[in-house]
Amino acid sequence: MFSRQSIKIHKKLKGKIEIKSKAPLKTKKDLSVFYTPGVGAVSSYLAKNKKKAREMTIKNNSVAIVSDGSAVLGLGNIGPEGAIPVMEGKAMIFKEFGGVDAFPIVLNTQDTEEIIKAVQNIEPVFGGINLEDISAPRCFEIENRLKNLLDIPVFHDDQHGTAIVVLAGLINSFKIVKKDFSRAKIVIIGAGAAGIAIANLLLQYGAGDIILLDSQGIISKSRTNLNPFKKEMAEKTNKKNINGGIGEALLGADAVVGVSAPDIIKLSHVQSMAKKAVVFALSNPVPEIMPAIAKKAGAFIIATGRSDFPNQINNALVFPGIFRGALDKKVSQITDLMKINAAKKLAALLSQAFLIEKSLKQFLRQLPDRFNQGLK
């Protein structure tokens, strides 16, 4: 149903975003002030005072949404043209919920050096860079290098936006099930961009027992086929150095976060988890386990990444507010502390009384509205 509607509306609109002037051009005087000859004075001033561009141009409120189309939704490497409508949709969310003017920059290259150079070259006009749908492990290097090269915040939303909203969801979920975050066993299925970022942020927050899995099984020090990023995670997670697959990982687990592939969590896996288990199956469009199956298996709290199921966990709850704050404060980096504070603020938008009295279904349905209220 949504697919047909989406194709129809995209054909009609021919683009979901547009540029509008903030001031009228109705007279010759208007033209002279906003364009030539008046604008020449502004150009001369900014040529000598480059840092003032934030105060006098669109740099003050603009973000580039940069993608190479290599990891789009659950569709994979579909290239730049396929990425455009996703980036347009993201720009709409930026504007609606954060008041941020975001524009898609979709690159016709998947070369790491070319992407880094392209982003460097567009830095003068943007106040922030949102990296989007760039495949792992290239996304790690691209983000890390750009953070060191640029004076504006660089934020790979697939990593950090997802990590922040997952942390917020787990904070409130563990309140509901009355479990200590630092003692809970948390399993993350998927060791790509999102999975590694989630693990890192949960560790920063104080998680004590995390097990991370990739397509080959549990990431452990015993594995000899790990890339450098996964090797680093093997040192940080899986304290007991267990090996095996999803079944071994989920035995006695308090929570599982899936950011991997469809239908890989089975009913028996959830049944083997601890009492009042938390299941976040975030793969799109098909989750790791369907909510009905997870519920049948005994999961106490269930969420997916889909808007047509109850309890959606989506990074759209995060990136408008993160960039709104970064632009307003004119920060050059979005730090781990800022991410944790964002997760705590997001979780705190729901009162303790609400969490106790209402179901998680209502909790997550109301979260976007409450987050928007918090931004305002």
Put the structure in a nutshell.
The protein has 376 residues and is α/β, with parallel strands linked by helices.
Question: What's the number of domains?
Answer: 2
Let me know the number of strands: 10
CATH architectural label of the largest domain? 3-Layer(aba) Sandwich
Order of helices and strands, N to C? HHHHEHEHEHEHEHEEHHEHEHEHHHH
Provide the helix percentage: 40-55%
Q: How is the largest sheet built, in terms of strand order?
A: 7-6-5-8-9-10
Low-confidence stretches: 363-368, 370-376
Largest sheet: 6 strands, mixed
Q: Give the integer mean of the pLDDT values.
A: 91
What's the Cα radius of gyration? Answer: 22 Å
CATH class group of the largest domain:
Alpha Beta
Distance between the ends: 33 Å
Can you walk through the features of this model?
A six-stranded mixed β-sheet has the order 7-6-5-8-9-10. With 376 residues, the chain is an alpha/beta fold. It is 48% helix and 12% strand. The protein has helices at 2-13, 28-34, 39-48, 53-56, 79-98, 112-122, 138-149, 157-177, 193-205, 228-236, 246-250, 267-271, 291-296, 319-329, 336-348, 352-357, 360-375, and strands at 62-67, 101-106, 128-131, 154-156, 185-189, 209-214, 217-218, 255-258, 278-281, 301-304. Residues 363-368 and 370-376 have low confidence and may be disordered. It is elongated. It folds into two domains: 8-152, Malic enzyme, N-terminal domain (Rossmann fold, 3-Layer(aba) Sandwich), CATH 3.40.50.10380; 160-304, NAD(P)-binding Rossmann-like Domain (Rossmann fold, 3-Layer(aba) Sandwich), CATH 3.40.50.
